Amino acid sequence: MSRTPSPTAQDFVPFATAALDFHRALNLPGGPLVTSRAELDALHSHLVSLYELLDAHAVRVGQLLPAEGNHLRATRTRIWQAADHLHAAYHTAPRTDSGEVPDREACRSGLPEGAPELTICQRHQRTAHLVRRRTTPTDLHTPFTGLIRH
C-alpha cells in the first residue's frame, strides 16, 4: 500500500496555513488589543477541524504504523487541549454588545448567553463527545513530556 497521495489529490492544508498567516499579518499589527469573541469562535472552529483531520489520520495510520499513530494521537490530544482553552477564553472575553466580562458563575451555568453565541459551545460539546471516545482522561490531564508510547 502506498503512503503517498495520488497525484490527483488536492492538498488544501497549505492554503489554510497561508490564510492564517495572511490573517495574522493583516489583522494583528493594527487591530484591537483584545481578541474579539468572533475571532475566538473562528479559531476554535479551525482547531476543531484540525482535530478531526488529525483524528482521521491517527485512526488510519495507527492500524498500519503504530509508532506514527501514537504521535498523531498525541498531536490530536494537544490540539483538543488548545481548543478547550480557546473555548474557555471565549467565555471570559468581553461580550460584544456590552463589553462586560461574564463572571465565572455565569459561564458555569451551561447556557450563559443563548443563541447564536452558543454555536461555539455546541461545536465544543459535539467534539468533546468524540474526544471522550478516543482519549483517556489520563491522556487529557497528563502534562506533555515529549515521550510517546511505542
Characterization of this structure:
Helices cover 64% and strands 0% of the residues. It has helices spanning 13-27, 37-64, 66-92, 104-108, 119-134, 137-141. Helix 2 (37-64) packs antiparallel against helix 3 (66-92) and helix 3 (66-92) runs antiparallel to helix 5 (119-134). The model has no long low-confidence stretch (mean pLDDT 82).
Q: What's the SSE blueprint?
A:
Layout: H1 13-27, H2 37-64, H3 66-92, H4 104-108, H5 119-134, H6 137-141
Helix pairs in contact: 2-3, 2-5, 3-5
Q: What share of residues is helical?
A: 55-70%
| Rg from alpha-carbon coordinates | 18 Å
Mean pLDDT: 82
Number of helical elements? 6
Q: Approximately how much beta-strand content do the residues carry?
A: under 5%
User: Could you give the order of the helices and strands?
Assistant: HHHHHH
The global form is globular
Q: Unreliable runs, pLDDT <50, ≥5 residues? A: none
Largest sheet entry: none
Question: Which structural traits does this protein have?
Answer:
0% strand, 150 residues, mainly alpha
